[in-house]
Amino acid sequence: MTFSLKRINAIFIKDWKDLQRNSYILFTVALPLFFAAWIGRMGEDSPYMFSFPINLALVISGAFIQAAMVAEEKEKNTLRGLLLSPASTIEILIGKSALSVVMTILVVVLSIILLDYNVPSLPFFALSILLGILFYIAVGTILGLISRTVMETSIIGMPVLFIFGMGSMFRPMIENESILNVMDILPNEQLTFIWISLEKQNAFLHSWDHFALLLLWTFISFVVTAMIYKKRKVD
User: Fold this and answer.
1) How confident is the model at residue 170, as a pLDDT?
2) Cβ(93)–Cβ(229) under 8 Å?
3) Are the C-beta atoms of 108 and 58 separated by less than 8 Å?
4) Which stretches are annotated as coiled coil (predicted)?
5) What was the pLDDT predicted at 218?
6) Residue 80 · residue 66 · CB < 8 Å
7) 3-class secondary structure for the chain?
C-alpha cells in the first residue's frame, strides 16, 4: 500500500467539519487564551507565570482535542470503519493528528501574543514546542483510545490536566522534597526549564539535558500509543 496524502487530507477535512460542530472542543480551546489574556494584563514578568498558559495550551489543545476527536469516532461507531478502510495505520494517525497540531500551534501563538511574551531564541523555543506537541498528541490519542465517549475523555484526562497543565501553579504550595523531585522530571517542567534556560547566554548548553528528557518522554508516549492502538485495532 502506498502512502497517500489524499487519504490524510480527507481525514483532516472530515475532522475539521466535525470540529466546527463541536462546541465542547471550541469552549475548551478558549481556556488557555483566557488565562494568557489575564496574566498578560497583570504585567507579571515571572517566567513561571508565562509558562503556565503555554503549557496549558499544549495540554488542552494537544491532548484534549486529540482525545475528543478519537473518542468521537468511537462514540459514533465510525472508528472501526476507519481502521478497516484502505488508509494505513500511519495515514490514520497522521490524519487524526493533523488538525490537533494546527489548532495547538494556533492556540500557542495566540497565547504568546496575549501574554506579550518575548520569545527567547526562537529556533530552540520552536523545537521545544514541537516536542511538546508530539508528546501531548500521543497522550491525547491514548486518552481517546481508552475512552468510550467524548465526555469520558474529560474525566479520564483530568489527572493529565492537573499534573501537566496546572502542576506548576501548585508547585509553590508543595514542600515535600520527594514530590518536588518527581515533578522535576515531568515533561511540562522540562518545557518550563527550557524556556527559562533560553533567557541565558549559551542557551543550548543550559537546556540540552531538559531537551533530552523531553525527547525521552515523547518517545515513550509514542511507544505506549502504538501498543494501545494495536490492541484496539485487534479488538
Assistant:
1) 76
2) yes
3) yes
4) none
5) 95
6) no
7) CCCCHHHHHHHHHHHHHHHHCCHHHHHHHHHHHHHHHHHHHHCCCCHHHHHHHHHHHHHHHHHHHHHHHHHHHHHCCCHHHHHCCCCCHHHHHHHHHHHHHHHHHHHHHHHHHHHCCCCCCHHHHHHHHHHHHHHHHHHHHHHHHHCCCHHHHHHHCHHHHHHHHCHHHHHHHCCCHHHHHHHCCCHHHHHHHHHHHCCCCCHHHHHHHHHHHHHHHHHHHHHHHHHHHHHHHHC
Joined grid coordinates for residue 95:
490524519
The predicted model scores a pTM of 0.85
Buried b (16+ CB within 10 A) or exposed e, 181-192: eebeebbbbbbb
Residue 9 C-alpha cell reads as 487530507
Does residue 31 surpass a pLDDT of 80? yes
4-30 tens-digit pLDDT: 777 788 888 877 877 777 777 777 788
